[in-house]
């Protein structure tokens, strides 16, 4: 009898103990689960194997001017950066429009603003002739009073200025820059075109900034500077240039270029991980990073601190299409080949940075992808979408990666989150010397969208 009572009592105790346990006690741990510490250590080991040091991938602080790649002909200084930051966002420079309707309503930042990772936020960035902004540029459309031919747009998706310090030539076809990849292309620096600015002898960032002011109908005249609040800023930025040559469009471009070189995504979680922060990345992000630098082979094109590259690749992506302004000309469609005139360069485009893509709704040079996952799927399957690009023109690296759905998901999380600097507003001024406080546009619709009225 006592034996039966004891068995019943033991059963009751077992039930009570079991009922007090939390649901977590029943979570099964997969056999392939790895500890965070192991994920971190194996990632570091892989990076050391590839680069020899984690420093090879670290973006410097934006104030470490000597650590940021400089153009020897345009040393980065605090005074230049300060001036360039203001000029980059200054809508008062929009004084060379095709229509008075757009006068003083646009800036460099119209197509390169912080809310979209210093891209445009739309498939085709609009400078002069744009109307509206939305939350991150997504509502900018052609102004209803503009003819299509008068709107300032390009026949290719607007690239970012983020991490451009790690590029020696600029734009998708690399046409700006007098050295590096462009050595030997002098015959293509056509007089009377923006490419002629290469003859000034600067690197890509500087050349593009100078040429871009003219292309995008922005002007800096001596009268505007000498009789305005920017004079002292130019004096501080260019003290060694004779006063009669100091207040020029070229120097404005050089100041903008120094600012652009300091626009770095150095607060992204991956950057924090590289600097020793063991809490910067989740386990999924760490797995994605290992795939990026391993099975996914992403690092073969996207490398260095900017995770970009100076090589040009033909990946068979589509050009701009659908509801676009204007047409895509043959030279633009041919990418690098459209600039160099070398058939071997046809349909090759420069490798972009992978930082801050989460806010970008259009990816690829033609904006044919609407998410990071879409473009990873495309590269994983390696089936070209552009019928104009023949098989023998495709890059040898464009081959199936055989990533599983889970691996694609982890890789997507790494790119979207670990490479995302959420504090880019630090590169936007509170106001400019001319009183501008609303960025990046000053048309009536944008002022409403930005709550600047």
TrEMBL record:
Superkingdom assignment: Bacteria
Keyword Transport attached: no
Domain Cytochrome c: 283-419
GO molecular function: cytochrome-c peroxidase activity; electron transfer activity; heme binding; metal ion binding
Transmembrane spans: none
Keyword Iron applies: yes
Keywords, ordered alphabetically: Heme, Iron, Metal-binding, Oxidoreductase, Peroxidase
Localization per record: Cell envelope
GO cellular component: cell envelope
PANTHER family: CYTOCHROME C PEROXIDASE-RELATED
Name of the protein this chain belongs to: Di-heme cytochrome c peroxidase
């Amino acid at each position: 009898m006592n034996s039966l009572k004891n068995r019943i009592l033991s059963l009751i105790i077992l039930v009570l103990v079991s009922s007090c346990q939390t649901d977590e006690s029943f979570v099964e741990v997969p056999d392939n689960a790895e500890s965070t510490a192991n994920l971190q250590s194996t990632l570091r080991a892989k990076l050391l194997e590839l680069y020899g040091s984690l420093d090879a991938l670290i973006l410097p602080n934006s104030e470490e001017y000597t650590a940021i790649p400089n153009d020897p002909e345009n040393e980065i200084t605090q005074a230049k950066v300060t001036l360039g930051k203001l000029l980059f966002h200054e809508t008062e420079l929009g004084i060379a429009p095709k229509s008075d309707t757009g006068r003083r309503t646009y800036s460099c930042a119209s197509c390169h603003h912080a809310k979209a990772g210093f891209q445009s936020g739309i498939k085709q960035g609009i400078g002069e002739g744009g109307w509206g902004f939305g939350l991150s540029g997504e509502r900018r459309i052609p102004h209803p009073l503009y003819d299509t031919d008068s709107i300032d747009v390009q026949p290719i998706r607007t690239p970012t200025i983020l991490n451009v310090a790690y590029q020696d030539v600029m734009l998708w076809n690399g046409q700006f820059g007098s050295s590096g990849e462009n050595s030997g292309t002098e015959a293509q620096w056509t007089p009377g075109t923006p490419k002629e600015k290469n003859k000034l002898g600067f690197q890509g960032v500087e050349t593009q900034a100078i040429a871009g002011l003219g292309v995008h109908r922005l002007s800096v005249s001596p009268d505007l500077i000498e009789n305005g609040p920017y004079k002292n800023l130019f004096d501080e930025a260019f003290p060694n240039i004779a006063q009669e040559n100091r207040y020029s469009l070229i120097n404005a471009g050089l100041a903008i270029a120094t600012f652009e070189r300091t626009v770095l995504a150095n607060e992204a979680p991956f950057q924090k991980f590289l600097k020793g922060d063991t809490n910067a990345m989740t386990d999924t992000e760490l797995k994605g990073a290992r795939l990026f630098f391993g099975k996914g082979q992403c690092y073969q094109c996207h490398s260095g601190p900017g995770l970009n590259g100076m090589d040009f690749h033909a990946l068979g992506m589509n050009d701009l299409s659908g509801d676009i302004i204007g047409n895509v000309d043959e030279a633009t469609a041919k990418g690098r080949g459209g600039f160099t005139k070398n058939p071997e360069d046809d349909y090759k485009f420069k490798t972009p940075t992978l930082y801050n893509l989460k806010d970008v709704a259009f990816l690829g040079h033609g904006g044919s992808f609407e998410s990071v996952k879409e473009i990873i799927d495309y590269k994983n399957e390696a089936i070209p979408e552009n019928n104009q690009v023949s098989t023998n023109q495709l890059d040898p690296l464009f081959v199936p990666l055989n990533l599983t759905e889970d691996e694609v998901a982890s890789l997507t999380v790494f790119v979207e989150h670990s490479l995302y600097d959420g504090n880019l507003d630090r590169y936007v001024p509170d106001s400019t010397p001319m009183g501008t406080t609303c960025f990046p546009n000053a048309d009536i619709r944008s002022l409403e969208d930005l709550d600047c009225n």
